[in-house]
Amino acid sequence: MNCSIAKSLDQVGDAWTLLIVRECTMGKTRFDEFQHGLGIARNILTNRLNQLVADGILETFPAPDRVNTNGYRLTRKGEELYPVLVALMQWGDRWRTAHGKPLLTLADKRTGQAVQPVDIRSADGALLSYRDIRLLPGPGATDSTLAVIDSRNQRVLGEE
Amino acid sequence: MNCSIAKSLDQVGDAWTLLIVRECTMGKTRFDEFQHGLGIARNILTNRLNQLVADGILETFPAPDRVNTNGYRLTRKGEELYPVLVALMQWGDRWRTAHGKPLLTLADKRTGQAVQPVDIRSADGALLSYRDIRLLPGPGATDSTLAVIDSRNQRVLGEE
């Protein structure tokens, strides 16, 4: 846990970065669109876009409607941040919105039905909190991972 | 989308903040435990903890094993950030870990079985990317939300 969350935050632990990724999921592609949508300073936007490309989260492509202008779009790696954005949206809807009224509903374009909430669920479908979770070593676990896992399970699950 | 993601990031758009929340899900409660686990400067940790309490994500409680010492624990609001952390962990496992080998597996403590991935799924269980999503107005939608929704659906879904 330590490692993968921290390593993710190395690349997306900055609010502007995730907001640029959000703009991409809204179909924005151009520097001026990002700037307009976010109200971000040009030098900061330039810096974040360059870093996102360097990190392989965005890639540039020739903008279809402008000569000599690059657009930005999500790579596969970038697209896979969508659950992070939706989890943040859901939390914001619940805890950061006036009267808890969501502005938006995400629907499956095929059916028009709302998507399922982003929850932690067991294989049998039960809704789980972090207190219902036991950490187990993954395929990349090291000795220090094992120590972290034991300590965490003792603390949270009250096990010896 | 604009609103709830941005509002969430107002409170958790800083890497230290989410890492402190992670430490709480690992069963840590005390200032010195956070400091040791994160290697964060004391003044920054003090600042972030105070802000997390002010934002209602953490609450203080008398530490059971220390006189005159407060511990910190997640509120309900804080606990509900767990899907955000797990989504970041999953993305990090996939894109930020050597050879894509996860260090940890999250298992249901009752069954020992791995939890389901944090994905965006339709009501009928299909895995969806952001391109499969149609935005619809939610109960809190305003006129400007409707304009954003229309523009986004046109851009991403190619609809008029």
Write down the Rg of chain A: 20 Å
Number of domains of chain A: 2
Shape of chain A: globular
Q: What's the level 1 CATH class of the largest domain in chain A?
A: Mainly Alpha
Q: How big a fraction of the residues of chain A is strand? A: 5-15%
- The whole-number mean of residue pLDDT values of chain A reads 93
Helix content of chain A: 40-55%
CATH topology of the largest domain in chain A, anyone?
A: Arc Repressor Mutant, subunit A
Unreliable sequence segments of chain A: none
What oligomeric state do the depicted chains represent?
A: homodimer
What string gives the helices and strands of chain A in order? Answer: HHHHEEHHEEH
Q: Write out the strand line-up for the largest beta sheet of chain A, numbering strands in chain order.
A: 1-2
Major β-sheet of chain A, in short? 2 strands, antiparallel
Query: Structural class, from helix and strand content of chain A?
Result: alpha+beta
Classified in CATH, the superfamily of the largest domain in chain A is: Winged helix-like DNA-binding domain superfamily/Winged helix DNA-binding domain
Task: Give the key terms.
4 strands; alpha+beta; 160 residues; Arc Repressor Mutant, subunit A; two-stranded antiparallel sheet; homodimer
Question: What does the model show?
Answer:
- The structure is a homodimer of 160-residue chains.
- With 160 residues, chain A is of the alpha+beta class.
- Chain A folds into two domains: 2-79, Arc Repressor Mutant, subunit A (Orthogonal Bundle), CATH 1.10.10.10; 119-160, no CATH class.
- In chain A, 48% of the residues lie in helices and 12% in strands.
- Chain A contains seven helices and four strands.
- The first copy, chain A, has helices spanning 2-12, 15-25, 31-38, 42-54, 76-79, 82-95, 143-157; strands at residues 58-62, 70-74, 104-108, 133-137.
- The first copy, chain A, has a two-stranded antiparallel sheet.
- In chain A, a hairpin with a 7-residue loop joins strand 1 and strand 2.
- The radius of gyration of chain A is 20 Å and the shape is globular.
- The mean pLDDT of chain A is 93.
- At the A-B interface, helix 1, helix 2, helix 6, strand 3 and strand 4 of A face helix 1, helix 2, helix 6, strand 3 and strand 4 of B.
